[in-house]
């Protein structure tokens, strides 16, 4: 996943290439973003696009690209390959081109479109998708403050706190750290508190 939405411009032999990238949850959101970019740049000769949405681990992926009038395979597909090489999902990219009068040839177009996207991704930054287990830890109110403090100063990720008859802290832990967290929790609660598994959750980390 990209760290933030953004835009970046490059110039190649007097042609302007303006790349826009954005996080999206579905194809409808991607389509809306593409429409906004087209509306904002009506004078561009091409608005070439690529998107990857879904979870590659499950195979439930939507992958699309569009050359928008450029020679087939010189714009959208190279952009899509950049997204795939960086293993990015839930993202749409649009590269708008204003022709500068000098033809770039097929190879030049591939390099220009893929390069504009690569530079934009470098500028906005990317996040890694890391699968965690969500663990629920219920403790009496008189223990909650200290345990919350310890969690915030630990390698484990405190996600939520729910105040009820007890205080339930939701903690995200990688599978590799699960046993270590159990030992950490036992040490701080005298072995009287156990974490309940609430399923998996993907976190996006730098």
UniProtKB/TrEMBL annotation:
UPF0029 domain: residues covered: 137-191
GO biological process per UniProt: regulation of translational initiation
Residue ranges of every copy of the Impact N-terminal domain listed in the record: 13-120
One Pfam short name: DUF1949
Superkingdom: Bacteria
Cellular component per GO, a single term: cytoplasm
InterPro entries: EFG_III/V, Impact, Impact_N, Impact_N_sf, Ribosomal_Su5_D2-typ_SF, UPF0029_Impact_C, UPF0029_Impact_CS
PANTHER family per UniProt: IMPACT FAMILY MEMBER YIGZ (PTHR16301:SF20), IMPACT-RELATED (PTHR16301)
Family: Belongs to the IMPACT family.
Listed name of the protein: Putative YigZ family protein
UniProt organism field: Amycolatopsis thermoflava
Species lineage: Bacteria, Bacillati, Actinomycetota, Actinomycetes, Pseudonocardiales
């Amino acid at each position: 996943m990209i760290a933030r939405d953004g835009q970046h411009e490059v110039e190649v032999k007097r042609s302007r290439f303006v790349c826009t990238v954005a996080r999206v949850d579905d194809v409808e959101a991607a389509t809306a973003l593409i429409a906004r970019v087209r509306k904002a740049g009506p004078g561009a000769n091409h608005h070439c696009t690529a998107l990857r949405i879904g979870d590659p681990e499950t195979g439930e992926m939507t992958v699309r690209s569009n050359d928008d009038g450029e020679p087939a395979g010189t714009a959208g597909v190279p952009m899509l390959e950049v997204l795939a090489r960086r293993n990015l999902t839930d993202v749409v990219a649009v590269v708008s081109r204003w022709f500068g009068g000098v033809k770039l040839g097929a190879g030049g177009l591939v390099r220009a479109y893929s390069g504009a996207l690569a530079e934009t991704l470098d500028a906005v930054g990317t996040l890694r998708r890391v699968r965690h287990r969500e663990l629920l830890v219920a403790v009496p109110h008189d223990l909650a403050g200290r345990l919350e403090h310890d969690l915030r100063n630990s390698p484990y990720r405190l996600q939520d706190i729910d105040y009820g008859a007890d205080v339930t802290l939701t903690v995200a832990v990688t599978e590799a750290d699960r046993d270590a967290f159990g030992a950490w929790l036992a040490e701080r609660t005298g072995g009287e508190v156990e974490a309940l598994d609430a399923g998996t959750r993907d976190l996006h980390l730098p």
